[in-house]
Queue: 4 jobs
Job 1
Amino acid sequence: MPKPSKTRDLRLDFFRGVALIFIFIDHIPENLLSYFTLQAVGFYDAAEVFIFISGFTAALVYGRRLAAKGALYATAQIWRRAWQLYVAHVFLFVIFIGEVSYTATTFNNPMYTEEMRVADFLAEPYVAVVKALLLEFQPTFLDILPLYILMMLLFPAMLLVINWRPVALLVPSLMLYVAVQVFDLSLPAYPPGSTWYFNPMAWQFLFISGAVLGQMASRGVAWPRLVRAAVPVAAAVLAVAVVVRLSWTLSGLWPAVPGLFLKELWPVNKNDLSPIRLVPFFATVVLVAYYVRPDARFLRSAAARPLVLCGQQSLEVFCLGVVLSALGHIILSEVSRGVAMQAAVNGVSIGAMLLTGKMIAWYKAMDRAPAGAASSSGGAGE
Amino acid sequence: MTPHLLAVAMLAALVAAPLGVDAAAPDGCAVPVELQQIDVKLPHLAARLRTHRPVTIVAIGGASTAGAAAGAPDLAYPARLQKALAADFPDVAITVLNRGVARQTTQQMVERFPRDVIANAPVLVVWETGTVDAVRGIHLDDFAAALQYGIDLLKKKAFDIILVDMQYSHHTAAVIDFEHYLETLHGVGELDDIYVFPRFAIMRYWSEQNMFNFDGVSADKRARLAARAYDCIARRLADAIQRAVQ
């Protein structure tokens, strides 16, 4: 756990940057690189990292603003952030409509009538658009932003409770999470019959856990002894999880390798954030908190710098990643899915994401600096 | 990623050119050997065929089972399968019933099992599913649960089962994420020792060979091309069935 300090905890930026790159990679179906992302070795994937760190940084950043300028100002800031996320969601939705309606109208093959029902919403665009604006229409890959937006809308209230008594938020949050696991609660979405991809009633627990830890970190509360005591348990949990999950990946590649506990555990529920995903994730958090120090040298290295900047400009880089993965998917489907094309799509896209992080950081620094004295420290958004 | 043989086939197709194309397919529907592997047996069907008793097969599925795109019921894949099997087993009366209904999820298909499948007392059930689930974004574990429930119903009746995965077109593949649904379907098949006919991978191979290319084909010729595609699917499926009863 970091000490209270004015300097940014670069671990948050670095790991969120890595998560953004992984989300891009995993969003392209059959991407060879996805054999090397978290989802191939752990039961959880980059979505958990993203939501957890988002909760953590939100508590850190807005907690400070709450202390300095009061609840009203902090609320306004948080909702401004929610608004930015909302605008990004609408932007991505417009791109999605363009992509699907183009395919649906130019491709009329009688063999694929069922498949083309993916464009059904075009029959009633007025409903689809309204449902998208209400966050109820969540087509593929447009599913994590609605969760994030909802969390930010509720965050002012969460923040006040955390500041009063973290437990007063954490306990109800955990109870709701458990209720989802037991009673299979879900939030309805559009079209009728579907539900939110990331069930907010389950995933809120991860976001709030992050926020509570973020608030503790901002106050300098740390239980080094507790963390140290948890390390062996966490290591054991994670080791088992990795061995089991890796056996599944390997048995998919080489049938001779047995998939351990496949019958019992597969498929692992992502929508409701199954404990099989959550527990190994928390184990990872403990290990990272203990072994990766906030002042670790590699976080300041030139190699890590582009990822840190990506993590700091997470909204822009995330949106770019979603657009690039949709584009990459089309190129791999329509042109070629050979290794050379995969390398080109991944290389160009990841390069663009890293460059965008750098560019925005530079721009924000220029913007902030007094005329004539540009700082190179990079912007530090939420 | 979840484990399944498909990953092997996909990787093999990605990394290298196909290892070899079946020389015994002079019908113009050849596929690489790795897409023809079947290591599951169909014991009930095999017993029927050995004793020359009549065989009923139910083909349950969606629009591509109903086969309206080809223009006539006897051009849909189940009718073509019946024809191909009749040629393979001339001394057995084989009937393939078409129970394709468009626009149904796996769950909705399972709900019509009693009337459409079980009432016909088939020896083999060929179950084509997954498309609508992928299109509608049904949650993967709900999809897996519906599949498992349906399979358990059929197993209880001691029917042999073959699963058939989705159709491939590079246009639709670009806007629908089939990957996770394919993985789930193949994963369930593997856990239950049920053969999953890799229609998606086969059609993708054909697409890469520029077969059944509908781009620029006039409307009246599309039905004929669709009928040809269904016929090819039926022939490869008949091959798989033949190998599974040996």
Note: Chain A touches chain B through 54 residues (CB under 8 Å).
Job 2
Amino acid sequence: MCYSVPVIYLDHNATTPIDPRVRARIIEVLEDPRLQGNPSSVHAWGQRARAVVERARRSVARALGAEPLEVTFTSGGTEADNLALMGAARSLRARGEACGILTSPLEHPAVLAAAKALAAEGGAVAFVAVDPRGRITPEAVTEALRERPEIGLVSLAAANHELGNAYDIPALVAAARAVRPEILFHTDAVQAVGKIAVDFRAWDVDLLSLSGHKLYGPKGVGALLHRRHLRLEPLLRGGHQERGRRPGTEGTPQIAGLGLAVDLAVAELELRSAHVRGLQRRLRRGLEQIAGLRLYGDPEVSTGNTVSVGVPECEGQLVLINLDLAGIMVSTGSACTAGTLEPSPAILALGCSEEEGRSVLRVSLGKDSQEADVDALLAALPGAIARVRAEA
Amino acid sequence: MKGETKPMRVVCAMSGGVDSSVAAALLLDQGHEVIGMTMRLYDAPDEARGRAAAQAGRGGSCCSPAEIDRAKDVCAALGIPHYTVDERRRFAAAVIDDFAREYAGGRTPNPCVRCNEHVKFGPLLARARALGAQALATGHYARTDGGILRRGVDPSKDQSYFLFAMGEEALANVMMPLGTWSKDRVRERARELGLVNADAPDSQELCFVAGGSHADVVERRAAALGLDLDPLAPGTIVDRGGEVLGEHGGIHRVTVGQRRGLRIAGNAPRYVLRVLPESRQVVVGDADELAVAAIEIGDLRRLAPLPEGGELRAEVQIRHRSPATPASVRIVGDVALARFAAPVRAVAPGQAAVIYVGEQVVAGGWIAASEEAPA
């Protein structure tokens, strides 16, 4: 960019800057000649590379309350979600069991598109009701599953990417199992790990997705946690890697980075969480001082880092650009949909109009965000809104 | 706009083509803070084809998804920010729907003029201001300095004809840095800058029908709009005496002055003289019969002060890429009557007629009626 302005990054739900410790670990793996082998190879270099991958697997498992055998590395959150839904549903279908999906309209496109693809294969897809704040209750899950024996898998995110709502996954799992004990439960925890406590075993879920770059790790790597004996039809065909669930030579440096990033995220959870919650309070208070803004989501139960704010009768995209030109980076919704210029799907799912969906900005704080960043945003926002409103 | 050179924030409308890319580069050279912006105007009829064309080095059409990517590439290479804004709804309503209505009414629309009036210079200028920009810039070959609109200096590229409806307010706030440039020089500069689209061919077709047929677009939109579809049905081709000479596939497939593609008997070349939507008749005749002595220009837009009621000695251009013809123009309210010094041929109702005094565009409107030249 040709303009020289201070850079304030407030789009951590899109991606996070890599933690210097994680970066150092990746570089260490990249630079060590003995770690350049193929983890599947029998020889010494293969064994060393394998050790790096397995160490990362243990880290992820331990940090999230799973067994190492329950961790499959993927190319990221999208693949983890796709493998969870498509892999589990196709496997259920192959065994003649119920393979329909129950999900919510607030899910990430990776989940919604996978469900849609399964529907195209003839599978049933149902949606749980959400309230105007984007909350999902156990009763809604019970209601949605009653008299729907075709549902074999429930997929509900542990935290919403646009609203920042956190969900009581153990309660939702319990509600689902009370109706159908054998039902499978997947949670997309891409926006949850590192923001709220995540425990695969204690939550009693069958499948859980996470992504490296949302927790200060590298891009291009993620993981799917799955119960040890759960059958998953692989998405890719090839070698025996990841016990056949995910063929393809393991990306040793990224996997090493993911392992450390998850370790750090869980070890520093309380610190990070307290920090962003303080900033979020400051931000919400400041936004409440600016007349005419609308706050979305459920502040009671949230990841503590996300504020979804509507600027009525304003094109959110233009406010975003104004802020960007002032060196402040936010989003108009999921980065996965921002490029398409469509209104925020999550906001539409709350029952809002398309125009309202286009008016929403998402501010997502990170562990390294500062009070000064929040203050700069609060200082810049009224001017940006005024400029956009003047020309509306 | 006035001949300002003081550095300021400028939004440059980028289509993805070489012209607007070089325009952005020139503004940067002049010291301005440049922001690239591309409007998403329509869902491409066939995005895959557009992409394939772009990858093969041929340009997609203006503002297609492939061209938006190209505008992003160019801005990244120039080191300036780039944003895309969604104008699909406005473009559909102001340009594509009008296109269908005009053809269904037996007229020949000019969607580029409509786009400039309703999409490019109104909303985009508002957006530029909403971003704190002092000016909007485009890659048009026309001159806006001094607050007047003049022809671009490259006669083969001059686009002033399409710009008469931009409005005086836009004119005062829009920069067209290519107005004094030739296309060859633009391409040369693009090559020097290493721009990916330096040698992309000029787009000739309408962006929203790219690769498809305009008749299909008219039929689809007319049906979607719930218009009376009767005028789009096949009809007869007749001579001036009413004798039936053949059939046509719909009046929207025919334009005044057209000769090719008419399936009629006889050796003498026949030209479309008139299109009659009510009876779906297309009247044909000899080349001589196309001659028009005077036209009425409706919905007149002014870009300069004009004498009300008096006679103005001017030149009137009734098509892109055809010379302006000297005419005596009388203006009454939002109508202008232009009497040509010598007859002009093939005057299509609905087309833009632009009034020039020398190089300057003083007004323009749409051809509402014409008076045949005496034989």
Note: The interface with chain B takes residues 1-3, 317-318, 321-322, 324-325, 339, 341, 387-388, 390-392 of chain A (CB under 8 Å).
Job 3
Amino acid sequence: MSAVQIDKLWSTFHTNGVESVIHKDLDLTIAPGEFLSLVGGSGSGKTVLLRQILGLETPTRGSVTVMGRPAAEMGRTGAASRVGMLFQHGALFSAFTVLENIAFPLRELRTLPPDLVRDAAMVKLQMVGLDPSQAHKMPADLSGGMVKRVALARALIMDPPLLLLDEPTAGLDPDLSDAFCELLRSLHQELGLTVVMVTHDLDTIYELSTRIAVVAEKHVIVNASPREVIAFPHPFVHAFFLGGRGHRAMALLRNPPQGV
Amino acid sequence: MSTVEDSQSRIVFEDLPEGECAMVLGGWTAAQLAVPSHWEAVQSALQRAATHGASMRWDLRQVQRMDHSGAQLLWNAWGRHWPARLELLEPQRAMLERVARFSVAPPRLQRMSSLAAFEHLGEGLFRVAGHIQGAVRIVGQLALDLLQLARHPGRAPWRDISGHLYHIGATALPITALVGFLIGVVLAYLMSQQLRQFGADAFIVNILGISLIRELGPVLAAILIAGRSGSAITAQIGVMRVTEELDAMRVMGIAKGFRLVMPRVIAMAVAMPLLTVWTTVAALLGGMLAADLAMGLTPAYFVTALPKAVELSNLWLAIGKSTVFGVLIALIGCHYGLRVQPNTESLGQGTTASVVTSITVVILVDALFAVVFKNVGI
């Protein structure tokens, strides 16, 4: 069974009475264990697609199935054990400490004793490379890199098999960005996650992806391994991957990511 | 990843020749364990296992799916060390090793020491001093800006002023009229019940006239506008801080006092008295209607009796008072807006503080007016 299955998806938006079509007959299948990067120009609806997988938005037509269930059921109780989402700006609850943020989905089950919840949250805190001394800090006191790590720990607290990432390295400096990529790759391998990532950063794409899906002309024009995608004859693919930035980032491909 | 739903998490004990064996079965995940009936069964089984101590053999190979919370539960039940006899799969071992490596207690929360409490008090004092300083500065800046306006009226931001007049004044007309009308109706109805006992029905005109024109009209309008436009002023300026628009203005050399504070103060000073008269008229209409319905006091009588009952100076006092209220509400809104820190939490706190402060100040200043002008118009 595929982790995510999108069939004949149409997305339309109304702005000032004008209807604009973002997706038209879009098909996408994501196999379990893949690290898939969604690539496309600005406004091509990558983030919309991510939100539709999460059930935050309903497509105009077509179906989105996640782990064998319709995406519309995603937001129901227990969603945290089915899918984890890393929002672009972390979306940490500003009223909670780091530890309370991470433990929140577990605590909301209201059965597990507080010390078990706390232990589980401490384990996740350290799995994402944070020091135990950060546990009682407030989100406002954290740096950008730390916010992303805490948000990742929170997304993973119930070990969901599917993890979605929206621009995971945006706003991080190159060092932090590399370290965060390293963390994502090791978690992907250790936990056997299926990961779907939206990003514009070519370094991140090359470093992590086992598959790349390119969204252009309102549908997925190609969904294949990084090398096959680069070889795909299409103006957008050519401009995106083989422009000046593309060539510099391509050096990373010599050490392709380890398949799972 | 399986389509099959995880089944109930449970522990089954088996008596084998080499000793008792605890078979861990089912979905060993937080979602499964959190079902109250599962949790109670697992707890009692873990307690039973604990009585056997180190001799117990553990078998995890039949577990459907295990997550870190489940692994944590087992690890804690084992007293945080590996049991002597344990059968498990490789991924489970890796997960348990991670849990073992990272299981530490969080650092203790620091209790507030007496020194910290003292420092807290000091911070509070500095905060109050900061508010006073900010208030003095904003009033002084306003005086300078008004001076500049008088010297070069052509350069004033007239469009801003007219825009604020519309948003603060014109768009507030329906809500102030509605609230004023209803208050007038309620007041007149209650009064009529009381006055009838003394046979003093006709005095309702005096009571309504004085109370609505002199007190309720200005205060009601001021409180509504403080909640509606005072908060909006703080939120607008606060958002400009969060989105760095204030910094952008500063970099371009545009004075925020002249362009942000002064237009709002002027608009408020003009709109507030007009809204007060509007609210008072609505309240009087409501009172007139209720008096007619409850006591049969005709509107014609009401209208002719009103000028005799209420001196004109009451109206001038109300208008003067409401101008002061308007200036204060605008200044407080701007003051809190400019103090917002560039984060969303501070924006919310600033808006709340602005509304609470401006309503409090309106009522305080109203009391002050009542004392100072106690000989006027009564």
Note: The first strand of chain A starts at residue 4 and ends at 15.
Job 4
Amino acid sequence: MATAPAEATAQGNGAAPPARELIDTDVHERALLEDLLPYLEPQWQRYITHYGWVPDRALPYSQPTAGGLDRADAKPGDGRPGGSDLGLLQRQLLDEFNVTHAILTGWLNASAMQEGWVEFKTALMSAYNDWLVEHWLERDERLYGSVQVNSWDAEAAAREIERLAEHPRIVQVMLYSGYEAFGAPRYHPIFEAAERHGLVVGIHHSENSPTALGRHRYFAEWHTLVPQVFMSQTVSLIFNGVFDRYPDLRVIMIEGGFSYVPHLMWHADQQYKELRHEVPWVKRLPSRIIREQVRFATQPIEEFTAAQLETLIGQMESDELVCFSSDYPHWDFDSPEESLPAGLNQDLARKIFSENARAIYRRLPAPEAARVEGVAA
Amino acid sequence: MTAGNGGGAGTTVDVGPAAELEPGQMVPAQLGDLPVVVIRDGEGELHAYVDRCLHQGARLSDGRMVPCVDGAVVGDYREVEGPALKCPWHGYEYDVKTGCVSFDPRRRLRKVAVAETDGRIVIARRKEDLPAAAPTGAAG
């Protein structure tokens, strides 16, 4: 690893992103439910227009911030939430920070909800995906999309992946984490379909993600403990043999940070060495599986010094596991110019800002073909 | 069956009657200051190793001989050629034929020379110290 520190930003607070390519692996676009009605058959429209369906939500508090879930300045000002306005997203993220590739991770994902009305939710995911393609992917070439699926019907989810995989700027399958660990065999058709099409599987937490002890009394507690659910999902995928069964699969854990990763590697390796007979279908040490097949988006990154971050990366024994994410437009957004510490090793910064994501999002166009100019909506 | 007596370099130790160690069984022994575990595998071949787990040093002879389990996909448990020697503490498993730990074939127990002679099991630090007849294991 070279030792040259990355250039500081103009503000002097963080390592500057590279000028050539910046890949943001967590950008939230958002539909209103009424936006999806034209994409639903009448029988499913009625679930919204007549039966009053809204996404079920387990979180016992709202987000006690200036703008609720969103950055206060990311709301369009007409009552719509952050992420619902393409022009604003272009100005505040793509143009301001010269993001060359933004991986859209969505908002509405039935995998994080309870199982009820499973057929409706499967149809709703299809509607969302059609809306995504028409209103986002076809309006700015810097945007890349995720297939939202209903994991409660994994066979239908696999069919939805097949349907959307034809679109050249679909690069990911999205699972939001709610009540279940995704390593269970019932979910394997989703991973099989993703692997077959070279799509990354992104796992994101949600307001329905519990902690080990439920949701606690205060939002600050729940939000502190968000990484727990990513540890659960990572362990579940490893020990249920998902990565052994689908060796070309790549999974990225989004919005849980990554500082837990060395602990998880060490602890899972220890359990594997001692209890391997219980999971004989796992053929590699968990730390090796993680290094070969799992990546972690940065946000919400802790406020590291360069030395602290480099030590943490060293403990992972790989500088290829971490990919930059901003989580725009949410209130805990990480600025590309501020989130990595000033003085960080320049090679490491370049890997985090672009190369590591490029290595797993194999459907992204080659760098020389990538277009960096936006196309106005 | 009882453990053999002490013995240093150039000497052998009589571990006991060969007939009393059946396939899939093990017995502790002492070769001078060296603790040894003698194992008869499923095919009847003898193996001897230093009786100390590579992990935290537990006496492997206090552990268990267990079936080797393999599987291709989640939920698939198949007993395969074995048995394996399982450490009494944290459960590290060793291939009794090679002494390799199950999760890393680069790490293996140190072998001790063992032979079956005149109905007795004999161990030594070096293969050349064993009686000429029928050595069934070699020090690595």
Note: The CA atoms of residues 66 and 72 of chain A lie 6 Å apart.
